[in-house]
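Case study.
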Amino acid sequence: MSRPYLIASCGIVAAAIAAAASVAAADNRPHRVVVRSFAFEQQRLEVKVGDRVEWVNEDIAPHTATAVSGEWDTGALTRGQSAAISFGAPGTFAYRCAYHPQMRATIVVTETEADGAAH
Amino acid sequence: MNRHRHILLAAAAAVVLTVTPANAENGVLNDLEIAHAAYTAGEIDVRYAHLALAISENASVREFAATMIRDHSAVNEAALTLVGQLNVTPQDNDLSRVLVDTATQKRAELKAMEGKAFDCAYAQNELVYHQLVNETVEGHFIPSATVPELKALLSEALATFKVHEGHAEHMVAALGCST
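After joint prediction, the assembly is written out as follows.
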């Protein structure tokens, strides 16, 4: 089973995964989740397999987006910093801020139409 | 816990309401004194947190302490950046001195404790301290600040500190400390 991947800032890993995964993210633009006022603005975000999700911290306090399962983690994001994860398999991924556990949200990854037709 | 809260609140309120610095009108703290007191309050909590990391073996207490260091350091770093941009120097004042003196006494108390007694004392102090700071920032600092950038920073810091207050309240309850 493929797992979500933290995207390196150079984008090389991102390009490789996106090309192999699907056509859903053809323009390679990530879904953006703004972290503001100690909350993930999208409490539930639905994306397609192969899409990237980018978290941007606008708070003074550092935050993370960390899978409850422990599978992935953006690491600490200080104000203005961002990090992206590519989701390579369908599933529901609950995540939280590792520093402020009350901050919780969910990413729902569904198959692309092409993936569904192939099955 | 209530006794400690009353002492802290009384001391802070007395200073906030009666201090009359030579360069301030209407008996309230000026912008530079507010900046100094707010920065001092953050530094005090960072020092409490370092003490907790040195003494406590409780995972939730240590996690909370690490968060206090991270968040208060970030707020104070933003304060230093603002001070640099405005090219001003924060002014020491009676409120800052009361905060420091009270914290020195409290740290001495905490250093003599260990185990659950320390965890509860630290957690309860964090709750009381954040209540005090939040009431002061919201009720006195923000209304009194005249520099828009300072007012904005205080407002954003208050949102952070209110989250800490909630976290501290949860920590006290989870530890099962007697009141």
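Observations recorded in class. The mean pLDDT of chain A is 81. Chain A has one domain: 5-118. We will return to this complex in the next lecture.
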